[in-house]
Amino acid sequence: MNNTHSTQTDFMLGGEIMLGNAAVARGAYEAGVKVTSAYPGTPSTEVSEYMVKYKDEVYCEWAPNEKVAMEVAIGASQSGVRAMTVMKHVGLNVAADPLFTVAYSGVNGGLVIFVADDPGIYSSQNEQDTRLLARAAMVPVLEPSDSEEARIFTKRAFEISEKYDTPVIVRSTTRLSHSQGIVYPEPRTNVPDKPYIRDVAKNVMVPMNARTRHKDVEIRMIDLTGHSNNLDLHEITYNDEPIPVLNDLLNGFEELKVGVITSGIPYQYVREAMPGASILKLAMVYPLPRILIEEFAETVDRLYIFEELEPFIEQQVRSWGIDCIGKDQFSIRGEYSAEIIKRGILGQRTKSDIPEIVPARPPILCPGCSHRSSYTVMKKLKLHAAGDIGCYTLGAFEPLSVMDTCVCMGSSISTLHGMEKAKGKDYIKNWIAVIGDSTFLHTGINSLMNMTYNDATGTVVILDNSTTGMTGHQHHPGTGVNLMGGTAYMIDIAAVCRSLGVEYVYEIDAYDLSLLEKTLKEEVAREAVSVIIVKSPCALLKDFVPKGKCIVIEEKCAKCGICAGPACPALRKNKDGSIEIDQVACNGCGLCKDLCKFGAIELVENK
Asked: Where would a tag sit more exposed on the chain, N or C end, judged by fewer CB atoms within 10 A?
């Protein structure tokens, strides 16, 4: 079952190395899933990108946001087929509305919700724990610890979903989603469609029906707890030999029979750091198997709970009167590691105890990124930006330093609106909202609608680079291509803005600096809602064709450094003030050329 125990021989006997996310897609395919809907969000994105490889048998789509994706999957499930929706942890917030209700109404075909959390906050705005939301919604959670379990648990989730009439969450983390392991693929199970039977009491959540269904959910959770106690996916390893562990009261060590309850990726760290400990690896982390945990706890002298983020397991175990050590020993923040166990439990010196001098390497916009051009003009005009989620969030940092706020997808426009309503029109004369094309279609449309509906003033800048750039260049409703690779209707963002009542809508080339500057000046002074769509394709798109390469004319260079101001990675200012342009990195966007007042940079266009 567990690929951490696989050998090279096992691999040669039919295993394949798969990314955790690819294994989830494989598991869903093998389970007979027929419909998947998702919105890209690191670290969950690759599930759908691998899922579409099975498009001959599975319908796959990018939805405009996670709420829509959840609702599409719910509809497919209600019609009688197995369905899955995919998102990151903050995406589950967007989808919480349908999640909490489908927990009441239940399913027809199996419904699986794959959610990837981000301990360590590598690519997110917070570090929330999906298990807490699942408990609030009363939805069971499976948590695999490696790629093979990701495949198996996803398959099993569909079976549990149908058996107990419930959606099931499969929870991953960045480390699992983006690590590779050996997987043993199996053939697809062709699950017959379930018949659709009209059932208003079950599927129409008006208050009188919801009251009855809530009772059914409570009964279901009792049944699921019994299922969890007998679930064959849990694993127990018993070791009766005492091992030396730290005892702060003794200011030293004592030898004890140690037990660790864990799940997911932290299980791998426990196995590596404490091979002499007894380990209970939980597969279903909600509801927890109380009987199994109580029996395990009785076999050890000291019990540790090793779980990333919230003390989810620990609090429940303590509530049962079981003594354990958890967050009083381990941090509630960030990713865990084997070193944390070695240092915190075993008292061993680790590499992290040795200070290292590591050069800072802050994230930066790519060479030729059109956002840099836009921010350069905004900074010149000393504008403040209410910001949003995307590559362009990097506009908050030096040397661009334009973006002042960032909350969540689509929040920039609402934030600007709130400022204007709180402090008046004059207050936002040097403020704008900045949002990307994919994010605007995700949740920005509603916010713009709110501005026109509520008689607002403000300028919204949509940075349209024709892709969902931050998560790896996925298509969206404004690109004209869907996840299945087919031609799709291309949403006209400018027309959408006009349809919402915005009279002043402009489309400007991101590298037309003078026109962009002129338009920004005019619109921030206007007492109305206006939208400026700054357009230029992402320089990393496969079909992007660079204009050429920029070169420095050394004899003309005044060494003023203005061209280096936007911090393009392809351009370097030497100690003597001279400028060098990396001919490999440069894609000829021409921003540095346009900024130079001395004609010292030329664009050599491709022939």
From this structure: C
SS3 114: strand
CB 67 within 8 A of CB 98: yes
Fold of 370-535: Rossmann fold (3.40.50)
Q: How far is CA 426 from the centre of its chain?
A: 37
Phi and psi (nearest 5°) for 256? Answer: -140, 155
Phi and psi for 173 in degrees, rounded to 5?
A: -135, 170
pTM score > 0.85 for this model? yes
Contact indicator for 270, 262 with CB cutoff of 8 Å: yes
3.40.50.11540, 3.40.50.920, 3.40.50.300, 3.30.200.20: CATH of 235-344 = 3.40.50.920
Token reading at 265: 């990726």
- 4-13, 63-72, 424-433, 476-485: segment of lowest average pLDDT: 4-13
What are 284-322's pLDDT values in tens digits?
999 999 999 999 999 999 999 999 999 999 999 999 999
d(CA 295, CA 411): 48
Residue with token string 């509603």? 446
Alpha-carbon gap, residue 507 to 34, rounded angstroms: 40
